[in-house]
Structures are given as structure tokens and as C-alpha cells.
Amino acid sequence: MRPRRPRPTSLISMLRRKKFPPCWEFALGCRPMPILFLDFDGVLHPEHCHESKHFSCLPVFESVLRQVPECKLVIASTWRLQIPVERLREKLGSDVAAKLVGVTPQYCDLHDVPPTLVGYEREAECHAWLRANQVLNEPWLAVDDRSWLYRPFCKSLFLTNSRTGLCTASAERLTARLLKLL
Asked: Which are the contacts of 170, defined by CB distance < 8 A and separation ≥ 6?
């Protein structure tokens, strides 16, 4: 018995099976676009720092996003409650600001929090944003310094040290985590 030769793949069969060469996946919209939920305090600068140190870790964060151009950005920080999203966008570099697609809703405004997320405010806000934007199946990662705002062992949480914010070593790990979501 002769071994079967692989049949040439036609475009129609690729469309039916949703199997595309990697370079086509992103263009056709079937490659995942990871969503990154971003906290500010304890991530973009140390948690309790002087105002002059605000956004001191922003260059490190922006370098991460430049390595993962497919990533979408959603602000989950409490800063979203005091400052309009357009002013927050101005704090980011233009290429990173272009990735900003919104802010999470406030926990107290959520109506249908699943029982498993009650008490885990930030994670519930992330899920509410995913649900409202109809992207529940997209991979996501929250970058935060407060583990108690997420369920224990939450696989979608990247934890930073609140005393330092996002440092170079943790930025390398964050880049690797985001690339795994692709």
C-alpha cells in the first residue's frame, strides 16, 4: 500500500475548515487578538509614589506592547473613574494609544455578576467588558498588582510588584505571556 500524498489545499477547503497559513489568520480575523486589561497604580508606577513618579514605568510597558502589535488595550485602573478616557489616552505613546479600545465598567454598575466572581471586583469588571463587547472567546490578560481583586490562581492575571511597578525583568515575562496568547 502506497502512502497517501497530501492533497493540495484549496482556499475553499481552508475556509470550510478555518485552517489558514499563519500570515492569513490575522488578516482574515481568525487569529486571536489578545486583550490586555491594564491597572496603573502598582503597574505603570509604584503604588504609593509621589505624583512626579507617575507613569515612570510607562516606557517599559510600551516596549512590551510594541513587541505584541496584535494586542488590544483596555484600562481597568481606578483612574478611569476620575479621568476621561481621552485624557488617559494622551498619557500613552501614539502607537500604544491606538491600541486602546475602552475602559472596564465600574463594579457597582454591574447587574449580572456570576456568583463565582462576586467579591473579585476587577476580574468581574474584565468579564463584563468582554461580555459587553462580545469577545468572550478572545484570550485576555490583566496586568495588576492586587491579587485579591481576582479569583485565587486566576490564569489571566499577570501580577506586578506594587513597590516597583512593571520592571524590565517582569516586562520580559509579560511579553512571553502575551505572545503565548497568540
From this structure: 160, 161
CATH code of the domain in which 144 resides: 3.40.50.1000
- pLDDT score of 14: 46
Instruction: Encode pLDDT of 75-115 as tens digits.
Output: 999 999 999 999 999 999 999 999 999 999 999 999 989 99
How many domains are contained in the chain? 1
Residue 20 lies in a domain: no
Alpha carbon distance 34, 53 (integer Å): 29
* Mean per-residue pLDDT, 20-41: 70
Considering the domain boundaries, does residue 92 fall inside one? yes
What does the alpha-carbon distance between residue 8 and residue 166 come to, in Å, rounded to a whole number?
47
Residue 26 belongs to some domain of the structure: no
**Torsion angle defined by CA atoms of residues 74, 78, 79 and 82, in that order, rounded to the nearest 10 degrees:** 120
What is the separation, in whole angstroms, between the first and last Cα of the chain? 40
